[in-house]
Design a protein that fits this description.
By secondary structure, the protein is mainly α. Helix content is 66%, strand content 3%. α1 runs parallel beside α3 and α20 packs across α26.
């Protein structure tokens, strides 16, 4: 994936400085930290084979020692891995940066693999023995949430030999993701002799000029045609490797391992997906039919789906303006949210300037609990970029709050991982809408609906596509033609008859989550619908809401999503919970329809 090759156009957007981690790839501290981590692992391994012989306070003390040492080593190795990844993601066409990332990954694996015994041996302990040990030795009690998540994996663990093999194989499996990233980094779409990178092409799809959108859409389809064989092989291989491991571990469905990590029942995810699918006609189909009518069309071409309506949709922002808007939105929430968001601007923690070799997309990398997050995006000055900035800063603020839990407990399952980001995005949109003129409100409302459709409807379509693909891969390799067909069927069902998807058949080839994080995508819909319920709660009593919300974020992964939502009086196990979000989005479409009628 690659960003536009126009470094001067957005020169006010910042670059990050990774020297808080290491000065450069040649920094001598890298080897020092590798040695430190190796020494900690050696110290940790002196406990191997001893835990099962202990009980009571002695076991509690040993568990505390083992887990603290395990966390400390993980923090050191996590910072090393983050430094390598962060540097590589802004320099995907630099062979040295890519090789450094791969080399660091292999070194980390070599040091960490001998700790495989830790989780296996802890899970050999009986539940009563663990409970008694935590009661007998108070300092060990803080690890209870981590132990809960760890022991959930107990039925699916393999022998130490197989677990070691899987860990050692990890860096080699990661090469498929590297192939995917580097293939997209090299992709160019030819538009009348202009070579567009992926980010440039996607950005062109929101141009006010229909001819430019059409040219970019067609050129990107042609560019994807040139890589679908490679990407199809990558998807097939990753799915086959996952299926093999899932079979060994006893997972019945391809998404089950992700559900377990998220501490969510597959039935709950299925219920959410079904609720969204049932709402397709009332939300997406109706909205795109309205938009097509407004644009004087019987159907929208796929490149018109996110086309701006009026000048509000096409408004641009410089970096300073975007920063002020986002920080004002965080301030609306109260507490110390704006202050924490401000840290990222006051310090070089953001890389927003698009440039050659930088991958597309956006993320907030937590690095480690003992360091600080870094935010990555490609700033092009559009309204969507403002919302993306808010989204990633939401992650960043969440990560700074959760850091107090320590490395092992700060990590948040996907059921809550998108909460702060989507909430921040919603606050920023509310401010945009509040400051808009009557003339601009329709275009802004359209943009908000489209963001919701992309986050909820489109991501559930992605999830259903991914599920069907993995199910078919279990029976044998899936051809590119069949992948195209499944993709088209699911996207057509979600977007409805008012969107013409001719030429969109191969656009699955750029969706990175299918490669980097199989079955991640439902988390976006999960998060959006969860945030809709939280926003309804905030509207009733904003002052009381803020401290509860801050506590939810600061808890990191120490509570399940069900426990985390209890203080708000919300029950995500109730099927009706999911309709709060779909009805909220449906209400926005109602408002849009009313504005269009006037």
């Amino acid at each position: 994936m690659n960003a536009p090759v126009k470094p001067t156009e957005f020169a006010d957007a910042p670059l990050w400085d990774l020297s808080d981690l290491y000065a450069s790839r040649e920094d001598v501290r890298i080897q020092t930290d590798l040695d430190r981590a190796r020494a900690l692992v050696d110290q940790l391994n002196t406990y191997q084979g001893k835990l099962t012989a202990l009980s009571g306070a002695e076991l509690g003390l040993a568990l505390d020692e083992v887990i603290r040492t395990y966390e400390e080593a993980s923090e050191i190795l996590g910072a090393l891995g983050a430094f390598a990844f962060l540097g590589a993601s802004t320099d995907r066409e630099n062979a040295q940066a890519q090789s450094f990332e791969a080399d660091v990954r292999e070194k980390i694996t070599a040091i960490a693999t001998p700790t495989v015994w830790v989780t296996l041996e802890i899970n050999q302990l009986e539940d009563e023995a663990v409970k008694a040990a935590l009661e007998a030795f108070e300092p060990a009690r803080r690890w209870a949430p981590w132990l809960r998540r760890l022991r959930a994996m107990k039925p699916h663990e393999l022998s130490e030999e197989l677990e070691t093999f899987i860990a050692e194989r990890g860096p080699l499996q990661a090469q498929w993701s590297r192939l995917f990233d580097e293939t997209l980094a090299a992709l160019r779409a030819d538009v009348d002799g202009e070579k567009l990178t992926l980010s440039e092409g996607l950005n062109r799809l929101t141009d006010t000029d229909e001819a430019k959108r059409a040219a970019a859409g067609k050129a990107m389809t042609e560019a994807f045609n040139g890589i679908t064989r490679t990407m199809g092989m990558v998807l097939n291989t990753i799915a086959a490797e996952k299926a093999l491991e899932d079979k060994k571990r006893g997972f019945k469905r391809p998404a089950d391992s992700r559900h377990l990590a998220n501490e969510v029942h597959g039935e709950s995810v299925d219920a959410m997906a079904e609720a969204v699918a049932k709402a397709y006609p009332r939300i997406a189909h109706r909205y795109y039919a309205l938009k097509a009518k407004l644009m004087g069309k019987d159907k929208l071409n796929h490149w018109d789906r996110n086309a701006p309506l009026g000048q509000a949709g096409a408004k641009t922002y410089d970096w300073k303006g975007g920063k002020e808007l986002v920080l004002s939105s965080f301030a609306d929430l109260g507490g110390d949210f704006a202050e924490r968001a401000g840290w990222f601007f006051d310090r070089p923690w953001i890389d927003a300037r698009p440039r050659a070799g930088k991958q597309s997309g956006a993320y907030s990398h937590p690095v480690t609990a003992g360091a600080h997050p870094y935010v990555f995006l490609n700033w092009m000055g559009e309204r969507r970029d403002v919302l993306t900035l808010a989204h990633e800063l939401g992650h960043g603020v969440h990560q700074t709050l959760a850091a107090g839990q320590g490395g092992l407990l700060a990590d948040t399952p996907l059921t809550l991982a998108e909460t702060a980001s989507i909430f921040a995005e919603g606050l920023t949109f509310d401010r945009l809408l509040a400051e808009a003129t009557d003339e601009d409100r329709r275009a802004l409302l359209a943009g908000r609906i489209e963001d919701g459709l992309n986050t909820v409807v489109r991501q559930i379509a992605f999830h259903r596509f991914e599920t069907r693909f993995h199910d078919e891969r279990a029976k044998g390799e899936v051809s590119v033609e069949r992948i195209n067909q499944i993709w088209t069927e699911e996207l057509t069902a979600s977007l409805g008859p008012a969107v013409d998807l001719e030429g969109y058949e191969n656009w699955w080839a750029y969706v990175s989550h299918f490669v980097h994080s199989p079955f991640y995508v439902y988390a976006y819909a999960f998060g959006d619908l969860l945030v809709a319920a939280l926003m309804e709660t905030r509207a009733k009593d904003p002052e009381a809401f803020t401290p509860l919300y801050r506590e939810l974020l600061a808890n990191g992964g120490s509570k399940t999503y069900v426990e985390a939502l209890e203080p708000f009086g919300l029950n995500p196990r109730d099927p009706a919970f999911w309709t709060i979000g779909t009805k909220r989005l449906e209400g926005l479409v109602d408002q849009f329809e009313a504005l269009c009628a006037n």
